[in-house]
Fold this protein.
Amino acid sequence: MTGDRASQTNSTQPRVGLFVTCLVDLFRPGIGFACVKLLEDAGCAVEVPAAQVCCGQPAFNSGDTDATRRIARQTIEAFAGYDYVVGPSGSCMATISKDYPEILKDDSEWSERARALAGRSYELMAFLTDVLEVSPPETSFEGRATYHDSCSGLRSLGIKQQPRTLLSGVKGLTLTEMQDAEVCCGFGGTFCVKYPEISVKMVSDKIGNIDASGADTLLGGDLGCLLNIAGRLKRLGKDVRVLHTAEVLAGMADRPGIGDGDRD
Amino acid sequence: MSASGREAVLARIKAALGNRLLTEAEAASIEKRMKSPPVGPRPGISGEAIEQFIAKAKGNLFTVERVVSLQLLVPAVKRLLEGVDGIPDISVAPALSHLGWPTDWDINVGPGRRIEPISVTPALAGIAETGSVILLSSSASPTSLNFLPDVHVVVLRASDIVGFAEDVWARLRSENVDWPRTVNIISGPSRTADVGGIVVRPAHGPKAVHIVLVDD
Amino acid sequence: MAIAGESFKSRASSALSDASLQTSIAGLKSGFVAARARAVAALPEFEAMRDAGAAIKDHTLAHLDVYLERYEREVVRQGGKVHWARDAEEARRIIREICAAAGARTVVKGKSMVSEEIDLNAALEADGLEVVESDAGEYIVQLAGEAPSHIVMPTIHKTTDDVADLFEDRHRAYGFMDRAKSAAELIGQVRTILREKYFAADVGITGANFLVAETGSNIIVTNEGNGDLTSTLARVHIVTAGIEKVVPTLNDASVLLRLLARSALGMEVTSYMTLSTGPRRADDLDGPEEYHVVLIDNGRTEMLGGAFQSMLRCIRCGACMNHCPVYLSVGGHSYGWVYPGPMGAVLTPMIAGHEKAKELPHACTLNGRCQQVCPVKIPLPDLLRRLRHQQWEQGFIDATTRWGISAWAWLAQRPKLYRAATGLAIPVLAWLGRSSGRFRSLPLASGWTAGRDMPAPQGETFHAQWARRARQK
Ligand code: SF4
């Protein structure tokens, strides 16, 4: 599919390679399409290299650094030649922009390429705000939302204000900050299945804070966390919609929320 | 025994650091660092050092009283003892024993005792940054008097108030004093929160610290 | 204390269902986190101080031999003795010998994490000595036969009632016949009992927050004043310290002290910061006749000079655990040894080896809040990940995880195959979950579905839809 690369771009448009992330690919493709819409509305030519799967974080965080290196090289190769690489996850984009250069720093063939890729890789909200400097999109969403700051995005990439700034333009949406918005939800990749009891305790604390905020919608920028929070909310029978920020900003929040079915 | 431990630990350290000798430049920079120690980032001081000292000391739950001369120390202690029944029984650091304490009091000049209602000791300096007092041990000021009493009276000359602990270290370095066994930086009464997270005063030391600030 | 880091999961599980423990830790969460945040907000220079603190530690560690030898020279010049211990066993032996030479019967101790690390109390008690902890928190856990559950607040797992029960039972021997009703009364009993012990003590053992090469001093930081009574009134003062505690000068110590009080307790200062240097001088009226320092390696040189060196910057403030959502869920005892929370999850395997602490590096979401608050900027998540890597390389990872990750990584390197597999499976799952939008249980996913529903896929995978879109264009 690399064949469609540059097919309909004009030379002034930034060419963006979309890093879909494996969770979005599998669980919530709508977030990927929301990214495409937001990026195209902002004047980018968006392409989706076929040779991407996952950033390799599950292997990296489990200690399998060799496999991570192999996956990193594959990703670097897949995204060579784009002006930017953008993805709807602070966690995956931090792996690409912070961890790839680190684990490949002693590899003479790849270290330079890893750094180059890192230098043009961005999380979606940061890209729209800090690089493209777009004004908040004009769209509407009825709801009282609260925002969960996912850890990697917040602490590795400094994503805090960007999504809030973008959301400030959404008509009908009120954003109420919850207590401990910056505290981990307990997802942590494989952590959530290795230590389910602790993970459930952490996500229950998070849900206590969501409840206390009075929000009817939970927004966030990382699908891993959102699946975790939605999974627990639904188990507890709570009527809170869970959506990725990109879906709201792209005006694509009219479908069932994460973990909600046709029936809800 | 420990001689072998010494050589072994030092050898491990040197090996971990790559077994290399200091370059001349490194040795010189270490020497310089030790001789004129750099001062790190510090909080700002607002206004006069003495004003901040008093404000911070009160924040630390010290009580502070200003007197115009050291001669007024004894009356100040008398006032503290007002309402206490019986003959006052106090400990006074040798440095302050000449100040004309009432002859009808029990005055202990020496180290602290198991039961020590009140002690009076001199401070070397006050630190405006934190409202702390610095006390040195010596033959004229035993350390136990700083920790055993229920009420600790600290005598501080206003001119000894400086901005920061580093100023005190600089003063001690320049005076080239014999380094004392103990330097106490005291910033409040003894306290603990180890039972149920509830703050209790005192724990093992004084429940109250009263600073008599002598203008000079 | 036996190292039980490998039983993390089962300990954590009981901790999660211990209501009184959960109440106790909740106080930590609200109180100390907020206090630290206020202290930091009040100090614009805090970030610069963190950088300075880390730089001081890095500089010292890079020349650790030089500074330790200078430190030793000053201690000796002031009349003290310096002992060097390769490991816990040697440290215990040195201290036992000092006690024996002093003809000691009673030993009073100030708070010292390294003495917990070398399991000192048990060794001294085996020699027939009476060993009494003087920090109120350490005293309580000692009386209860427990280990501290926090490096700064040892009793954070205990309620006032727990302590009242304990004292009611154990303080009769001291003539306290009635149950104490308040924290103040309970602490009053400790004060009364310890006052006698300080005067009876032959040996006083304290830790050291810092050792100062410039003057040969050790610095201890307390709020209670117990450490000072311990080091002043006993005939012999022994300081136990890890070799990483040395800093070059008093100015360096001052920078780190500013960081320590704020990070540990959210305060600008603690009540007492004390520099002790050598034994009593010839004309002093009090102070110990002997002053010994035991410098302890016990695994520290293995961290020096390599990828884990930054761990040796640690000033034991406890901020990482106060901010760790895992520690705040399961408490300190779950970690199975003396150092809990993020710093413990690094230190325990580094000191005790992976076999005894296999689980600890994994019991973390790598959320990074610890690193964000660490006053000396230790990259704790990165160190934990490196430990996982060591475990992977050295075969400490269980077969299921290993197999699972390897299989997944194999597939992730074959995009076409991956696409084909997921392109088939995902629509099926999506169809199965379409009406409720989630699954209450799924084969092989019990770890997830025990406490959570599993959201169902939205439909076909993104890549399948994108490929079709591209074909249609
Ligand atoms: S690792 Fe950092 S935050 Fe944790 S105890 Fe050590 S110095 Fe404090």
